[in-house]
């Protein structure tokens, strides 16, 4: 069943066309990867999906609902979450607190209740803590729960972003270059983590430059070049596609 | 409870001081001013320190609260507590109204908008003399009374303000340590990521703006009754900056820090009376120097120093920015 | 009836003329804001104090017996030095600070400078002699003093000069390059620190000139710069933060509207007018009249 569908998406910044007439659909439960050289428009696609950029044309439908006009927090409420290529960690909080923010949509306490610290607030705090530790454990970060987020090395920050997204219990997780800047062991761990997420039933939209990783875990791959769809298919199909080979290796091959 | 240990210690000190020194000017008079400023600083700290916004017009809400109480009790002979509530309601409405357009703005634009708002309110207080008394202000404001007791001595005022001041701190501590508080800090940390976690950040910022405005309004009402006199001078741009300075000194994102900032900044002019001419120079120097050399605030700076001395070791943690920088470029 | 209309019309001409004159000072202060903002991304809340220091220095120098034209030049030099120091001792050490932090630092600087002026000159209000006499001149329906003409004339010259500086000279272009991308500017051999220093000096000098121009018709005191600085900031925002010519236009617009509003609506609310306008603009077009919207990349 299709969970995400993009139809004729366009985005240009002034004269720069970042995404052009892009259509694709993601099936529930799969790992769908988007690859393409730097500047191909992958992050721009994510930003449109999340309501940060307004598409210049086209539409995005999630679980049958048109996302047009929705604000980011409303899109999040549909069950979409994401991680960022340029980390967007809350550096002013601890690791655990970062993930606790992820539980935002599953809880209710507002300012007034919080100010009075009613018993319901304390109960909710306990529950949030539990959920968050669970997400941290899944990402192998539980031992760092009380550290300041700013004191974590890069690889762990990447996993922290995933844990935070998981805490919101998403149906759909978009990951922007999760393995960028990771060493080989960390990359393997990341691959296992992504696979675990898939096993939990989360649909994954993955942007990644590490071809080994992409080809190993993806169900389908979309290749972007200068904002346009170059090819789409299973990892094998894409790897053997002449247009893709040309785009990646240049005219001379 | 461990979470509130600091609060209980502080409350005990606030309660003990006037018992030990009931006739000391620094305790009952200056102390009451400190406690009043604590309400303002703790409230603004929620907005500036935790949510990472800026307001250069907060004195306006202090003024609206004060004038509501002053006008309603002198001209309409309304009960003082009711007047205080009306003031709070008025500030709630006004803050919500201006928040909608103002809080779309960030950084310099937000600074300009709040600054402009503050100046306009101040000019209204000066100009509308038919009800505000104009530049001369309003006098003969009746004092508060509680269960038939008039709050009419320095000591009683100390007690009254201390009560609200402690409540303000408790509310701030409770909020910060909750879902609502994490929302604020998330907006500060990364607004987009906060939205991605489902936080309606415009609403978050509006709510905290309104809340901190209401803290100021409450302080304003108390101030009007305590002084029995209000004039626009007390609610100008300069005072807005003073409240910001308290927050900055305290480290912007620490409730106790804001308390500390209020204490230092209120005591400073009192202890520097001899240097009256130097007050501005020193005040400006503190703002500049504090922000340049101790961006984390004097309070945090001092507590960290003390901690380092106490346990000798404490490896500096790598700065988050460094981690970010290495990854600016796509691989 | 007809004469009433004519009277009204004459009045409006008069308001326009005084508005352009006061607007010119806002334009200069706004220009100072824009130059520093462009070069360093900092909104310098001490800009108004440059204006005050310019005027006060002249008063002080005249008091010490320095001849008038020389006093003007020395005053500009002094304020330029203050601008250099602000950059050297407050902005440079705080590189990388957040917007909120830099706002607080420059507010601190403005209070510090005001405090220093208070120590040196006390709380008195001083008057400064006009450049060339006080004999009113009739121009059409408007009556102006010669100083009004000086204000507008020198503003035009300064604005054109600044425009030429950034468009045509090597240093001007180098400063603009720094504002676009400091790292890249450094890589092509531009001395970024020096360029920042230059912008602060230039901005301070322009502020000082504004002070010399306005003081003869508006008096001066240790706190005369505050309101002027805030209105200059409003002018810069109105013009779209970071656009020099926008700031100039913003200043003129504010000056004229303020003068019309004070004359036709209420003089008591004169100082509020600029802020009402700026709030309206911020609410409906937050990027200013001539600015562009920017998006953070994530
Ligand atoms: N906010 C923006 N303003 C202007 N241009 C942008 C913006 N965001 C992206 N672009 C441009 O869009 C193109 C695609 O960028 P991006 O989506 O970041 O690529 P990728 O993530 O595939 O490396 C690039 O040319 C980039 O410069
Ligand atoms: Mg990208």
Automatic annotation (TrEMBL), chain A:
One of its GO terms (molecular function) is L-valine transmembrane transporter activity. It comes from Amphritea balenae. InterPro entries: AAA+_ATPase (IPR003593), ABC_AA/LPS_Transport (IPR051120), ABC_transporter-like_ATP-bd (IPR003439), BCA_ABC_TP_C (IPR032823), P-loop_NTPase (IPR027417). CDD domains: ABC_Mj1267_LivG_branched. GO terms for biological process: D-alanine transmembrane transport; L-alanine transport; L-isoleucine import across plasma membrane; L-valine import across plasma membrane. This is ABC transporter ATP-binding protein. The keyword Cell division does not apply. Keywords: ATP-binding, Nucleotide-binding, Transport. PANTHER family: AMINO ACID ABC TRANSPORTER ATP-BINDING PROTEIN, CONSERVED COMPONENT OF ABC TRANSPORTER FOR NATURAL AMINO ACIDS-RELATED. One of its GO terms (cellular component) is plasma membrane. Residues 4-251 form the ABC transporter domain.
Automatic annotation (TrEMBL), chain B:
It comes from the Bacteria. It is a multi-pass membrane protein. Keywords: Cell membrane, Membrane, Transmembrane, Transmembrane helix. Pfam families: BPD_transp_2 (PF02653). The chain crosses the membrane at residues 7-22, 28-48, 55-72, 78-97, 109-126, 155-176, 206-223, 243-268, 280-302. GO terms for molecular function: branched-chain amino acid transmembrane transporter activity. Residues 312-331 are annotated as: Disordered. It is found in: Cell inner membrane. InterPro entries: ABC_transp_permease, LivM-like. GO terms for cellular component: plasma membrane. PANTHER family: BRANCHED AMINO ACID TRANSPORT SYSTEM PERMEASE, HIGH-AFFINITY BRANCHED-CHAIN AMINO ACID TRANSPORT SYSTEM PERMEASE. This is Branched-chain amino acid ABC transporter permease. It comes from Amphritea balenae.
């Amino acid at each position: 069943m299709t969970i995400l569908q993009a139809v004729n998406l366009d985005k240009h910044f002034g004269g720069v066309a970042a995404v052009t007439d892009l259509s694709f659909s993601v099936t529930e439960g799969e790992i769908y990867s988007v690859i393409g050289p730097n500047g191909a428009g992958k992050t721009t696609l994510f930003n449109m999906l999340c309501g940060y950029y307004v598409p210049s044309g086209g539409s995005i439908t999630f679980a049958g609902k048109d996302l047009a006009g929705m604000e980011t927090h409303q899109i999040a409420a549909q069950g979409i979450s994401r991680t960022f290529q340029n980390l967007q960690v809350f550096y002013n909080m601890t690791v655990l607190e970062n993930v606790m923010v992820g539980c935002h949509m599953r809880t209710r306490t507002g300012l007034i209740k919080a100010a009075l610290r009613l018993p319901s607030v304390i109960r909710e705090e306990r529950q949030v803590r539990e959920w968050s530790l669970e997400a941290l454990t899944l990402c192998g970060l539980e031992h760092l729960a009380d550290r300041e987020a700013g004191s974590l090395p890069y690889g762990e920050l990447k996993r922290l972003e995933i844990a935070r997204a998981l805490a919101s219990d998403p149906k759909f997780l978009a990951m922007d270059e999760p393995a960028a800047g990771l060493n080989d062991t960390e990359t393997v761990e990341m691959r296992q983590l992504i696979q675990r997420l898939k096993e939990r039933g989360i649909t994954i939209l993955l942007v990644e430059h590490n071809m080994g990783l992409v080809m190993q875990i993806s169900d389908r791959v979309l290749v972007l070049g200068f904002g346009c769809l170059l090819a789409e298919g299973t990892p094998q199909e894409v790897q053997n596609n002449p247009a893709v080979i040309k785009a990646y290796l240049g005219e001379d091959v | 409870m461990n979470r509130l240990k600091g609060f209980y210690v502080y409350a005990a000190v606030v309660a003990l001081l006037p018992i030990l020194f009931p006739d000391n000017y620094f305790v009952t008079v200056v102390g009451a001013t400190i406690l009043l400023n604590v309400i303002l600083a703790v409230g603004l700290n929620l907005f500036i320190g935790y949510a990472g916004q800026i307001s250069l017009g907060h004195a306006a809400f202090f003024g609206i609260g004060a004038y509501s109480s002053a006008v309603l009790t002198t001209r309409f002979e309304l009960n003082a507590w009711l007047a205080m509530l009306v003031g709070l309601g008025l500030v709630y409405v006004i803050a919500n109204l201006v928040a909608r357009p103002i809080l779309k703005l960030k950084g310099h634009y937000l600074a300009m908008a709040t600054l402009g708002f503050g100046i306009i309110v101040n000019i209204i207080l000066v100009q509308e003399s038919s009800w505000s008394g104009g530049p001369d202000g309003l006098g003969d404001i009746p004092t508060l009374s509680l269960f038939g007791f008039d709050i009419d001595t320095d000591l009683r005022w100390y007690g009254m303000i201390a009560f609200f001041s402690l409540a303000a701190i408790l509310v701030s501590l409770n909020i910060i340590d909750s879902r609502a508080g994490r929302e604020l800090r998330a907006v500060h940390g990364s607004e987009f990521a906060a939205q991605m976690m489902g936080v309606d950040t415009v609403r978050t910022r509006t709510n905290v703006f309104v809340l901190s405005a209401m803290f100021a309004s409450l302080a304003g009402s108390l101030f009007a009754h305590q002084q029995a006199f209000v004039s626009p001078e007390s609610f100008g741009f300069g005072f807005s900056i003073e409240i910001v300075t308290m927050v900055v000194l305290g480290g912007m994102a620490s409730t106790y820090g804001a308390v500390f900032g209020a204490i230092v900044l209120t005591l400073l002019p009192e202890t520097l009376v001899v240097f009256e001419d130097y007050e501005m120079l020193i005040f400006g120097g503190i703002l500049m120097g504090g922000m340049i050399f101790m961006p984390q605030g004097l309070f945090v700076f001092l507590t960290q120093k003390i901690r380092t001395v106490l346990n000798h070791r404490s490896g500096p943690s790598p700065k988050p920015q460094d981690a970010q920088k290495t990854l600016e470029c796509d691989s | 009836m007809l004469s009433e209309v004519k009277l009204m019309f004459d009045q409006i001409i008069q308001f326009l003329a005084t508005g352009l004159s006061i607007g010119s000072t806002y334009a200069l202060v706004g220009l100072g804001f824009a130059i520093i903002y462009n070069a360093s991304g900092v909104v310098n809340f001490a800009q108004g104090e440059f204006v005050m220091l310019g005027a006060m220095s002249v008063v002080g120098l005249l008091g010490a017996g320095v001849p008038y034209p020389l006093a003007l030049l020395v005053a500009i030099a002094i304020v330029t030095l203050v601008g250099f120091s602000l950059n050297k001792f407050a902005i440079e050490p705080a590189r990388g600070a957040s917007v909120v932090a830099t706002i607080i630092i420059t507010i601190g600087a403005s209070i510090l400078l005001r405090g220093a002026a208070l120590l040196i000159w006390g709380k008195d209000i001083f008057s400064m002699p006009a450049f060339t006499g006080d004999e009113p001149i009739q121009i059409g329906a408007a009556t102006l003093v010669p100083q009004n003409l000086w204000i507008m004339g020198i503003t035009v010259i300064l604005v054109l000069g600044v425009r030429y500086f950034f468009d045509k000279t090597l240093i001007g272009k180098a400063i603009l390059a720094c504002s676009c991308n400091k790292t890249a500017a450094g890589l092509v051999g531009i001395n970024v620190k020096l360029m920042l220093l230059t912008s602060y000096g230039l901005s301070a000098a322009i502020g000082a000139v504004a002070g010399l121009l306005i003081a003869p018709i508006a008096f001066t005191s240790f706190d005369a710069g505050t309101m002027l600085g805030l209105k200059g900031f409003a002018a810069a925002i109105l013009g779209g933060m970071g656009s020099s010519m926008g700031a100039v236009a913003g200043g003129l617009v504010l000056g004229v509207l303020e003068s019309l509003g004070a004359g036709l609506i209420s003089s008591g609310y004169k100082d509020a007018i600029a802020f009402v306008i700026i709030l309206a603009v911020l609410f409906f077009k937050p990027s200013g009249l001539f600015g562009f919207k920017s998006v953070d990349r994530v």
